[in-house]
Amino acid sequence: MANYLNFSTFEEANRSAANFTEVVPSQFTLPDPRSPGEEWLIKSKFSDNNERHGSGNSVTLAPTGYNFNFNGNVLRIIDTPVIGDTGGSGEDRKNFDQILLYLQQHKDLHGLIIIVKGNDNRKTLFFKYCITELLTHLHRSVVQNIVFCFTNSQVAPGSIGPGEGYKVMKSFLEEDISSVGIKLKPGRNAFFIENDAYRFLVAKNQGYPWSEIQEFLYKHSWNHSVAEIERMFSHISSLTPHRLDATISLNNARKIVIELSEPIVLLSQEIEKNLDEIKKAQQLLEHGANTRENLAAFLETTITDLVKKPNQVPQLVCKADCCIERIYVEGEGEKINYKTVCHRPCFCLIWTDIIGKCWATNEF
C-alpha cells in the first residue's frame, strides 16, 4: 500500500524503482530463466527486527504505525500482527493484547482494513476462527468502519475484481455470522488489488529479466491497484470515526471476567465444602449424647477460608470524595477504599509517565 500511495502511476514507480518505499521487508521466488527448474530468490535489502520470514512464520511481530500524505491529510496506517499466528492461540492472545495496548494511544479509528487473499476459496475452520476471533475483540459499533481489501485479485489476465475469495467471505459474513451485520459490496467495503506489479518492480530492480508483454500487464495491474487504494481510503475518510474507548472498555471487561472466572469457581467449591462440613456437624450434634462432655466436642468445626492477596495488575483509580469509601477499622483507624476503578488494567503510564495521558481521563 505504501508504494501505491507514493507513486500514482506505473511509469513514475518504474522510474523510481531503485528508491522504492519498503516499510515491511519482503521476499519471494520466481522461476530462474537462466536455469530451467531452478528458482530465483528476490529478497529485500531492507531489514527490520519487527519482521520475520521463513519456516512458515507470520511476519509482523508488533503493531507499528506509518504516516503517509493523502489528499492533504496525514494518513496513519497501523500494521499489526496477523490473526491465526503460526504460534497458536496463545500467540493470538498476545498479539491482540499488543494491538489494544497500542490503540490506547489514540482516540479514534477511522477504518479497520481486513486483508484477505482474493484467490483463496476455502472456508475452513481456521478461516472461521480468524474472523470470529477478530470480531470477538471489537466493539459492535466498529462494524461500519470495517473494510476488506482482497489481494491477488486478478481473475483473468488484465482483469482484476471479485474472485473466489470474495465469494467465500461474502457467504461467511452473510450466512455464518449474519448477526454481525456486515454485507460486502464492491466499492463500499470491498476493494480489490493485485500485488504482482510491486513484485515486478522489486525483481526488476534486482536484475530479473521481464518481457515487454509482462511489463504491459503489470502496468495495468499497478494503475488499477492505485485507483482502488485511493477509493478505499477516500471511503474510509468519509466514515464516522469509531471511538476506541468503546473497544478498549469492552476488552478490559472481557479480561476482568476471564481473570475472575477461576477464583469464582474456587470460591464456589469452598462454599460447598464448608456447607457439607456444617451439615455433618449438625447431624453429629443431633444424634450425639446430650452430655456436657460430648457437646463440648461440637463447639468448633473446621471450615476453609480464602485469603485475599494484593493484585499485581496496575489500575487507575479515582481519589475524588464521591468516588471513595471511608472505612473505620478497629485498632487501625480510618482506611480508604478506592472503589471506583477508571481503567484496569492500565498500562498507559508505561507509554507516557503522565496520568493525564490515560484515555480514561478524556485528555488523551
In DSSP terms (H or I, runs of 4 or more residues), the helix count works out at 10
The count of β-strands is: 15
CATH topology assignment of the largest domain: Rossmann fold
**Overall structural domain count:** 2
Low-confidence stretches: 350-356
Kindly describe this structure.
This protein is an alpha+beta fold. It folds into 2 domains: 2-240, Rossmann fold (3-Layer(aba) Sandwich); 310-364, no CATH class. Helix content is 39%, strand content 17%. The protein has 10 helices and 15 strands. The chain has helices spanning 2-6, 10-15, 89-103, 125-136, 164-176, 196-205, 212-238, 244-287, 292-296, 348-352; strands at 27-31, 39-43, 64-70, 73-79, 108-109, 112-117, 146-151, 154-156, 159-160, 190-192, 242-243, 316-317, 325-329, 333-337, 341-343. A 3-stranded parallel β-sheet has the order 6-7-10, with helices on one face. The protein is elongated, with a radius of gyration of 29 Å. Mean pLDDT is 77; it is low at 350-356.
Explain briefly what this protein structure is.
With 364 residues, the protein is α+β, with helices and mostly antiparallel strands.
Keywords summarizing the entry:
364 residues, Rossmann fold, two-stranded antiparallel ribbon, alpha+beta, 15 strands
Topology:
Layout (H helix, E strand, L loop, with lengths): L1 H5 L3 H6 L11 E5 L7 E5 L20 E7 L2 E7 L9 H15 L4 E2 L2 E6 L7 H12 L9 E6 L2 E3 L2 E2 L3 H13 L13 E3 L3 H10 L6 H27 L3 E2 H44 L4 H5 L19 E2 L7 E5 L3 E5 L3 E3 L4 H5 L12
Parallel strand pairs: 6-7, 7-10
Antiparallel strand pairs: 1-2, 3-4, 5-11, 8-9, 12-15, 13-14
